[in-house]
């Protein structure tokens, strides 16, 4: 790739040594995300990928040696029917709302992506399928990856949107007046006033209280979301390590709503120079009638309203998000395999069949049940 040098990081020690350069690259990206931080990738690999192999592609400028691009990938094995399929995928998968190839601002994205795709091709004997998700369409690198993969005559490439993302650019004094659904927003604002007058306490950006409130937050989240990642010991260990990491402490957004001294709603998310990430909301189901979840969300947005940052509602387009949002993005899944690969056929079969069943209207509850029954440990 011209004046660039390509290397692979496959050991934990080399991965750990990348920390400063990795986060330095993130700080100089055009489309950075909190999920791209080294801490996310390293801690997730340590706690949630015990059987995976590192497959990190690093692109350096010559002769300076400066890192200009990183593809944070790993290799894992999954079972499909009676077959084991080797999959190249993002290190942080399933719990991060965005992943992508990290490319320094000013770098030729097309050439950087082509170099990473070349490495995947050169190591094609190590993987059967490259499953790249969730890659956000707000970053042009996503489309350049898709284009570069489609340019390989011996590869089969399929892609589809996996989720939509609602966002809102925050500005003071416009949360209600310029909201798409002003009636709903005014109702939530009035409800907040009523609750506060009735004794409800809102504690916003209170990260100092997270250690004390964390067990309650976990219980509320698992109660509200039966498929909560916090029910999984590995995910729980990862989030515990992430939230207690000294370098992540200042990036945490934690807010609470209390009634009678009891936590009835909470939010665990993140904040950086560009965004507030509405990541993990939780609410006591017994307090649902009071709309305390919507009230806490409104209060968080109001708290950060003058910051000029983007409020990111993350994956999913639940109706309440459209009350506030003024922009939409989408996450893309790109699945690549070599032509005539039987293991790739087996890997893709379940997903293609599921998408077909969704399109003809099979209830999602049935699909979730079928998915659980079909999952087999590697």
Percent of sequence in beta strands: 25-35%
Strand order of the largest sheet: 2-5-6-8-15-9-14-13-12-11-10
State the CATH class of the largest domain.
Alpha Beta
Topology as a string of helices (H) and strands (E): EHHHEEEEEEHEHEHEHHEEEHEHEHH
Task: Summarize the structure in words.
- There is one protein chain.
- By secondary structure, the protein is an alpha+beta fold.
- The chain folds into two domains: 4-162 and 332-374, Gcn5-related N-acetyltransferase (GNAT) (Aminopeptidase, 3-Layer(aba) Sandwich); 171-308, Gcn5-related N-acetyltransferase (GNAT) (Aminopeptidase, 3-Layer(aba) Sandwich).
- The protein contains twelve helices and 15 strands.
- α3 (38-48) runs antiparallel to α8 (233-244) and α6 (182-197) packs across α9 (292-303).
Structure keywords:
single chain; 378 residues; alpha+beta; Aminopeptidase; 2 domains; eleven-stranded mixed β-sheet; four-stranded antiparallel β-sheet; 36% helix; globular; disordered C terminus
How is the topology of this model organized?
Blueprint: E1 4-9, H1 12-17, H2 19-26, H3 38-48, E2 53-54, E3 56-61, E4 67-71, E5 73-80, E6 83-90, E7 102-103, H4 109-122, E8 129-136, H5 141-150, E9 155-169, H6 182-197, E10 201-203, H7 210-224, H8 233-244, E11 252-259, E12 262-271, E13 275-283, H9 292-303, E14 310-315, H10 319-322, E15 327-338, H11 342-359, H12 364-374
Helix pairs in contact: 3-8, 4-5, 6-9
């Amino acid at each position: 790739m011209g004046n660039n040098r390509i290397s692979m990081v496959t050991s934990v020690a080399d991965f750990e040594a990348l920390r400063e350069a990795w986060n330095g690259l993130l700080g100089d990206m055009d489309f950075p995300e909190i999920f791209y931080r080294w801490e996310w990738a390293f801690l997730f690999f340590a706690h949630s990928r015990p059987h995976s192999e590192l497959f990190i592609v690093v692109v350096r400028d010559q002769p300076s040696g400066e890192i200009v691009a990183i593809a944070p990938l790993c290799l894992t094995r999954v079972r499909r029917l009676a077959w084991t399929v080797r999959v190249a995928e993002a290190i942080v998968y399933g719990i991060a709302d965005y992943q992508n190839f990290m490319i320094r601002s000013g770098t030729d994205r097309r050439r950087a992506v082509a170099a990473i795709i070349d490495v995947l091709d050169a190591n094609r004997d190590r993987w059967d399928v490259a499953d790249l998700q969730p890659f956000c369409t707000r970053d042009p690198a996503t489309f350049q990856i898709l284009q570069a993969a489609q340019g390989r005559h011996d590869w089969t490439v399929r892609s589809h949107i996996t989720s939509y993302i609602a966002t809102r650019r925050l500005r003071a004094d416009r949360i209600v007046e310029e909201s798409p659904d002003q009636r709903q927003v005014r109702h939530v604002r009035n409800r907040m006033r009523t609750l506060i007058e009735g004794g409800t306490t809102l504690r916003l950006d209170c990260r100092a209280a997270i250690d004390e409130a964390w067990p309650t937050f976990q219980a509320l989240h698992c109660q509200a979301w039966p498929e909560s990642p916090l029910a999984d010991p590995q995910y729980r260990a990862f989030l515990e390590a992430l939230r207690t990491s000294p370098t992540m402490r200042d990036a945490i957004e934690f807010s609470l709503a209390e009634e009678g001294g009891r936590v009835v709603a909470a939010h665990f998310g993140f904040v950086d120079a560009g965004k507030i990430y509405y990541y993990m909301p939780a609410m006591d189901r017994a307090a649902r009638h009071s709309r305390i979840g919507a009230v806490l969300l409104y209060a968080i947005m109001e708290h950060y309203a003058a910051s000029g940052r983007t409020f990111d509602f993350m994956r999913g387009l639940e109706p309440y998000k459209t009350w506030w949002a003024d922009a939409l993005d989408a996450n893309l899944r790109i699945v690549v395999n070599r032509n005539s690969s039987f293991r790739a056929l087996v890997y893709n079969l379940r997903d293609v069949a599921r998408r077909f069943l969704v399109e003809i209207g099979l209830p999602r509850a049935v699909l979730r049940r079928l998915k659980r029954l079909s999952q087999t440990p590697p």
